[in-house]
Structures are given as structure tokens and as C-alpha cells.
Amino acid sequence: MRNILVLLLILTFSVILAESSFAQCAMCKAVAESSSGNIGAKNLNTGILFLMSIPYLLATVIAIAIWRHNRQTKNTSSAKEP
Questions:
Q1: pTM (two decimals)
Q2: Burial track 34-55 (b if 16+ CB lie within 10 A, e otherwise)
Q3: By residue range, what is the domain housing residue 75?
């Protein structure tokens, strides 16, 4: 249970701190600086953060699934032993 709380705390801080980051790739930065249309630097940054979040969400879901599977396997094996 403590591991889940630590994981949720890390994910929460990651989301909070990601909003204040200003990192961009070279191509995105060039587009943001040269754009005079509807796409501003802030919107471009938000799009980058959104695209970056998907792999982290997938990794989190897979890690939780593996953790649950291991926990269930451990519980069933310990129940079978006399």
C-alpha cells in the first residue's frame, strides 16, 4: 500500500512540475517563434506535454498490472502451502 502512495505522490508532483517546464525540441521552438497564427508558444507547449503524458500513462498501467499479477500469484502460492 505504501508503494502505491509513493507512486501516486511522484506522479502528482510530475504533473505539477511539468506545467512549469519550458523545454521544447528545436523544431517546436522554431515553429513557436516563427508562428504568427493561432498556434502560440503556450499552446504548442501544452500539446507537447499532452503527447509526452501518453507513454507515462501506459508505463504506469503496465507497472500496476504487473504488480497486481505478482501480488495475486504470491497470495495464491502462500495459500497452497500447508
A1: 0.47
A2: eeeeeeeeeebbeebeeeeeee
A3: 21-80
